[in-house]
Amino acid sequence: MNATLENPATFADELAALVSPAAILKRAEPMAKHTTLRVGGPADVYIEPANEKDLSAILKGCRERGVNFFILGRGSNLVVRDGGFRGVVICLASPEFARIEIDGTRIRAGAGAKQKSVAVEAKRNGLSGVEFLEGIPGSIGGALRMNAGAMGSETFNAVESVRVMDYFGVARELKRSEMAVEYRCCAFLKSHIALGAVFQCSPQPREEIEKRMKIYNEKRWRSQPAAPSAGCLFKNPSTIGAGRLIDELGLKNTKIGGARISQEHGNFLVNDGGATAKDVLELIELLRAKVMAERGVELHSEVEVIGEPA
Ligand code: EPU
C-alpha cells in the first residue's frame, strides 16, 4: 500500500460507513497526542476499530482505494514526522482489543492492552513470567511486534501463541514456534497485525512477584529518564550497550532544538518541551555519525519513523 489519500474527508466518510457506531474516527488527528515523545504532525484519518470485524473492513477499504495505513500501539517506539501521516492510522485501543483474561496459568491479552496492565494482572493472580513488562510504556501489540524486552527478559519468552490478522482482514492463531523471533524484532508482524497473544506463566506467591517488580521498578527509576522519550533509541550492538557507548563518548546532553540525549541514560532521547520530529531525527543522525566516526560501530534504530517532513 503506497498511494496517498487524495480526499481524506471523503475517505473518512466511506470508512465511517464500513465500521460499527462504537468505532472512533477522527480527521487530521495530531500524532503528537499519540506518541510518548510528543512529536508528530496530523494523520489524515485516525481510527479506533471497535472489534476485529471493523478492523477487517478498514483494511479492505484501504486496500480497495490503495490507501496507506499504519497500525499504532501506544506510540512508545515511534517518531511521526512533522508533516504528519498521509493515510489512515489504525489504533487498537478499544475495550475489545484491550481485554486481559486469565485462564489457569495462561493470560490472554489483546493487542491494545497496556504491557503494564498485563504485568499487574499477572501479579494479582499469582502468575510469574511477565514481570518485566511492568515498566515498558507500550501496548501488547507493540511488545509483540518489537519483541520488547527489559530486565534480561523479552516478550516472546512468555508467549505461547499469537492471534494475527493479515492485510486482507483474515484472522488466525499462530503458535510461538511458527514465528521467527529475534532481539527486538518479530519479522512476521511486519506484514501481519498482532491482535493479541496468550502468555504462559507459572504460579508463584504474589509477594515474590511483587518483590521482583519492585526491584525492576527501582532500577528503571534509577537509570532511565522520566521525561517524554521513545524508550531506547538504538538496539544494543553485540559488543557494547548503546547507552554505555554514547555515555563513553561524552554525548549525553547533546541537544538539537527541544530534543536532548538524556543525562540519566545515553540511549534515551528526551523531549525537553517543544521538540519537533525534525530535531529528534537530526539528533539521532548526529549520534549515529559520531559513534561511527569515533568507534566504527553502526547503530541500528529501535524506533520506527513514519510520515512526511513538514
Ligand atoms: N550504562 C552506562 N551509561 C549509560 C547507560 C548505561 O554506563 O548512559 C551502563 C550501565 O551502567 C550498565 C550497562 O550500561 O552497566 C547496561 O545498562 P542498562 O542496564 O540500562 O541496560 P541497557 O542495555 O542500556 C537494556 C534495554 C532497555 C531496558 C534495560 C533494562 C536495549 C536497547 N535496551 O538497556 O530497553 O529497559 O536494558 O533492562 O536492549 C528499550 O528497549 O526501549 C529499553 C529501554
SSE diagram, text form:
Blueprint: H1 8-18, E1 24-30, E2 42-48, H2 52-65, E3 69-72, E4 78-80, E5 85-91, E6 100-103, E7 106-110, H3 115-124, E8 127-128, H4 140-146, E9 149-150, E10 153-154, E11 159-166, E12 171-175, E13 181-182, E14 185-186, E15 192-200, E16 202-203, H5 206-223, E17 229-232, H6 242-248, E18 255-256, E19 259-261, E20 268-271, H7 277-295, E21 304-306
Parallel strand pairs: 2-5, 3-5, 4-21
Antiparallel strand pairs: 1-2, 6-7, 7-15, 8-16, 9-10, 11-12, 11-15, 13-14, 17-20, 18-19, 19-20
Bound molecules: uridine-diphosphate-2(N-acetylglucosaminyl) butyric acid.
Task: Give a written overview of the molecule.
By secondary structure, the chain is of the alpha+beta class. The chain folds into three domains: 8-95, Uridine Diphospho-n-acetylenolpyruvylglucosamine Reductase, domain 2 (2-Layer Sandwich); 98-207, Uridine Diphospho-n-acetylenolpyruvylglucosamine Reductase, domain 3 (2-Layer Sandwich), CATH 3.30.465.10; 225-302, Uridine Diphospho-n-acetylenolpyruvylglucosamine Reductase, domain 1. It contains seven helices and 21 strands. It has helices at 8-18, 52-65, 115-124, 140-146, 206-223, 242-248, 277-295, and strands at residues 24-30, 42-48, 69-72, 78-80, 85-91, 100-103, 106-110, 127-128, 149-150, 153-154, 159-166, 171-175, 181-182, 185-186, 192-200, 202-203, 229-232, 255-256, 259-261, 268-271, 304-306. The strands form seven sheets. The protein has a five-stranded antiparallel beta sheet with strand order 6-7-15-11-12, with helices on one face. It has a four-stranded mixed beta sheet with strand order 1-2-5-3, covered by helices on one side. The longest helix has 19 residues, at 277-295.
